Amino acid sequence: MTDFAIRYGDHVTRARRDGRPVVALESTIISHGLPHPDNLRVAREIEQTVRDNGAEPATIGMIGGEIVVGLDDAQVEHLALAQDVAKLSVRDLAIAAARRADGATTVAATSAIAAAAGIGVFATGGLGGVHREASVTFDESADLTALARTPIVVVCAGVKSILDVGATLERLETLGVSVAGYRTTRFPGFFITDGGFDVDWQLDSPEQVADFIRARDEQRVTEGALVLANPLPRDEQLDPELHDRTLESGLRLLSEQNITGKAVTPFLLSHFHSSTEGKSLETNIRIILRNSALAARIAVAATSGSAGPVGFAAP
Ligand code: PSU
Ligand code: MN
After folding, report:
1. CA 75 to CA 181: how far, in whole Å?
2. In a domain, 315, yes or no
3. Known catalytic residue at 26
4. Distance 207 CA to ligand 2 centre (A)
5. Any idea what the CATH number is for the domain that residue 248 is in?
6. Is 194 domain-assigned?
7. Which residue CA neighbors atom 10 of ligand 1 most closely?
8. Under a CB-based contact definition with an 8 Å cutoff, are residues 206 and 297 in contact?
9. Which domain holds residue 192?
10. What share of the chain in percent tops pLDDT 90?
């Protein structure tokens, strides 16, 4: 596990001192995944949802080259509204620090930092994964390899349907990342409830996920995340037909405009938001809020009923 020089927000320092549960949150969804100005409102709603469910939110990002665990409201606002915020995966962190940059952290960077900070639960929307043309482009998100070496529970709605879901599940297996559905064995496809693939395991309550964390620690398993896939209820998903149509046009634009690398995911998400008249945005927001609530309840369950907060060792 990598160690970083980390600055803690006051609210996170207080929560840890008092032994209260903390949930890590990423900032790339704020800066690069959601359109302005909704993104600022959503960032605040995510934090409030974590609080409403009994845990302290620690939104993670970089300000002036410093990694911050627990951005304050002004810092969240800055990352939401500023134009020059870098998208930071693990490999970018030290370069961005050297450049004193402002940056938003992806699932990969956020989970690495959270684990280094002793935070065991992380809520996001959807993971990065294997892109559809990966056999030619080699485009596979560093989220997958980061999760392979990071002991954290990531609550997400599976991987975005813009990706190759089956290939992503295969890579997660190879990389030794645990995967379980929350109250289902069907792996969700982010905007849509059913991503078309089964997973082997299902976990049914925050307490059962807390038992996973304890068992993992007792087994001395120090590498490998749990991807806990929390699907939207069927009546809340994006209309699958609208979804397929939008995806098709998005993939076409992607190749026409020759968009590659780290711009791919933000481009496709913004294409969805603009061509579904905000319907996908509404769905995206619901996904994140539901995952944040569940992550908070898991953090609460993992913190109570044990001698110390299991999986939350102080750094
Ligand atoms: N999930 C969302 N919106 C996002 C992302 C995930 O609902 O914007 C971000 C996450 O930060 C994830 C990143 O880590 O996209 C993956 O980017 P890439 O495919 O370039 O690795
Ligand atoms: Mn990529």
Report:
1. 34
2. no
3. yes
4. 34
5. 3.40.1790.10
6. yes
7. 106
8. yes
9. 7-304
10. 90
Residue 314 falls inside a structural domain = no
76 Cα to the center of ligand 2, angstroms: 24
What per-residue confidence (pLDDT) applies to 3? 54
Contact 45, 80 (CB under 8 A): no
Give the model confidence (pLDDT) of 248-296 as tens digits: 999 999 999 999 988 998 999 999 999 999 999 999 999 999 999 999 9
What is the CB < 6 Å shell around ligand 1?
26, 28-29, 32-33, 106-108, 124-126, 128, 141-143, 262, 265, 269, 284
Q: Is 141 annotated as a binding residue?
A: yes
Assess whether pLDDT exceeds 60 at residue 311: no
Overall residue count recorded for the chain in this entry: 315
The region of weakest confidence among 18-27, 71-80, 215-224 is 215-224
Over the chain, what is the mean pLDDT? 94
* Joined tokens for residue 207: 């307490």
The 10s digit of each residue's pLDDT in 118-129 is: 999 999 999 999
Query: What CA–CA distance (Å, rounded) separates 25 from 12?
Result: 12
Give mean pLDDT, residues 58-64: 98
Q: Which ligand is nearest to the CA of 60?
A: 1
Amino acid at 219: Q
Residue 24 has pLDDT above 80, yes or no: yes
User: Ligand 1 pocket check: which of 25, 27, 28 to mutate, most ligand atoms within 8 Å of Cβ?
Assistant: 28
The answer to whether the annotation marks 85 as part of a ligand binding site is: no
Residue nearest to atom 20 of ligand 1 (CA): 262
pTM exceeds 0.70 for this model: yes
Q: Which of 47, 56, 140, 160 is catalytic?
A: 160
Q: Whose CA is closest to 237, among 158, 181, 179?
A: 158
> Does 313 reside within a domain?
no
- Give dist(CA 296, CA 21) in Å, integer: 8
Catalytic (active site) residue 279: no
